[in-house]
Amino acid sequence: MHELPLVFFTVLGQSAVGAFILLLLFSPYNGKQLGGRLFTTLCLFGIGLIIGVFHMGQLLRAINLLFGVGRSPMSNEIALSALFGAFGAISALGLLSGKGSAQLFKIFGWIAALMGIGFVAAIPAVYQLDTVAGWKTEYTWVVMLLTVFTGGGLIAAALGAGRKALWIAVIGIVASLLIRPSYLAVLWRADNVLTSEQTLWFGFQLILMLAALLVALFVLFKRLPRNWVYASAASIIVAELLGRVAFYNMWAMTM
């Protein structure tokens, strides 16, 4: 279970960044209402960050990694996560306080968004290892970046970003489902034994992704009330967590 903290760190981190950006883009709210919703995404991000620290064993290890910024993907990941959290907190708490310039705090929000984009791009770069054939593939980039749209889109929609965020989530889920056969084929060629051991993880992930997609579509076409978006968001987060467990299990030491 050594890699389990990274499962939560990557999925919650990517989803939180996606939701933060989509709220800035599409949320009809301003001022305190927007600040409260941005702060909610940062809380999700913070939970993932705290869980991720347990992978280090000691907090000092994370601090030492900062010395590799610019040359180490993991150092870049940690530095950019810190910058996203810092600028995002200034933006969210500033808006939430109702004091100062709301426009200035939104600018800080967009700076945070840029840091967040760098952060989610840095994550798959960490796993381009020659020693793990199931990780060193373009699908690692695609699958992880799609989490920004699937998890982020549904969380943003649940927080009030509206139909545009929901459509982005739907497109992300459909894209994730469409690449599934080719992704699994690549994993099978890389290590058919380890891939076969992930059947249950990938199977349950597929079921939950389909459930999230159907609920989102029913909400979009007004067959279900908007509150069902929360169920769809929960379903996709669990689905992404299951898929990420299978991803880390492609390392020789299974979870």
UniProtKB/TrEMBL annotation:
InterPro entries: DmsC (IPR007059)
GO molecular function, one term: dimethyl sulfoxide reductase activity
Listed GO CC annotations: dimethyl sulfoxide reductase complex; plasma membrane
Gene Ontology BP annotations: anaerobic electron transport chain
Keyword Transmembrane on entry: yes
Root EC class: oxidoreductase
EC number: 1.8.99.-
Membrane-crossing residue ranges in chain numbering: 6-26, 38-58, 78-96, 108-127, 139-159, 166-188, 200-221, 228-251
Keywords: Membrane, Oxidoreductase, Transmembrane, Transmembrane helix
PANTHER family: ANAEROBIC DIMETHYL SULFOXIDE REDUCTASE CHAIN YNFH (PTHR38095), ANAEROBIC DIMETHYL SULFOXIDE REDUCTASE, SUBUNIT C (PTHR38095:SF3)
Protein name per UniProt: Anaerobic dimethyl sulfoxide reductase subunit C
The species this protein was found in: Providencia heimbachae ATCC 35613
